[in-house]
Amino acid sequence: MHIPDNYLSPSTCATFGVAMLPIWRRASLTVKAEITRQKMPLLGVAAAFSFLIMMFNVPLPGGTTGHAIGGALIAILLGPYSAVFAVTIALAIQALFFGDGGILALGVNCFNMAFIMPFTAFYLFKLTKKLFKNQKGEYIASFLGGYISVNVAALFAAVEFGVQPLLFKDVSGLPLYSPYGLAVSIPAMMIPHLLVVGILEGIITVGAYSYIKKASPDVIYKGKVSKMKYFYIIMGILILATPLGLLANGTAWGEWGSEEIKNLLGFVPKGLEKGFQYNSPFKDYSFGFLNEYFGYILSALVGVIIILIIFKVLGKINLKRNIKGD
Description:
326 residues, Arp2/3 complex 21 kDa subunit ARPC3, two-stranded antiparallel ribbon
């Protein structure tokens, strides 16, 4: 679901970037007001979890791949604006350092995965809990929150892809950016997400929610941070397990390179061929001097460290502001 650069027009990317500005501002203000210095590491762990979980690619029908996002879980545990903040940081690190998702398309990707998904999950979770007022209701609500929210986000991405050939063509009538219309993009995105990715997201959400509820319920009910060491142990396990994401062959739908596009279409849309290019330092989560699997582990470790440092710094800034009464 990470839309690369040049698959959407610059005007499309700019529109969604502008739309995200007030959302990011509100998220920043909410996090500043609600997340204490003691809880900031937990938000960092949440962002790192989202970053890591997106590295676990799974095979999908049609020969493509996909992954869970973790935005639903963060929204349910810490609130939707905290999820906006955490997933945005994870997506920014992926784009800037590892070339996963476009730089120009960062606003679009954040709109889909860091805004639409968390808010859908959060309010669906609350509604379902009201309908099923027992312990099982919480588990049903968390599964549905994960399953439905990732599919809603996928639908937005499918529409964003699908309108491109309708709106942007060259003088010969060929598409300038994403070449597939809505009749192709919607089923291509939705069928795998409805059948596989949504179920995966739902299982991860309900599994992690039930674990945290038993191991550290204060996080959910009182907003207190306890037993942080267990979260760090889980992150360490996930980092070591990330090479499992390399076992899924194929490319995620809509994330092909120029050569793959040419093989599929017989030509490369001009916007894709001559568009914005950004060379990330560790493209595709790889280090040239390391084996692919060890490079993936090192990329996971580097990404997590960067994210935790960012939230450590943000925690100190927030503390200073609170002391000054700003």
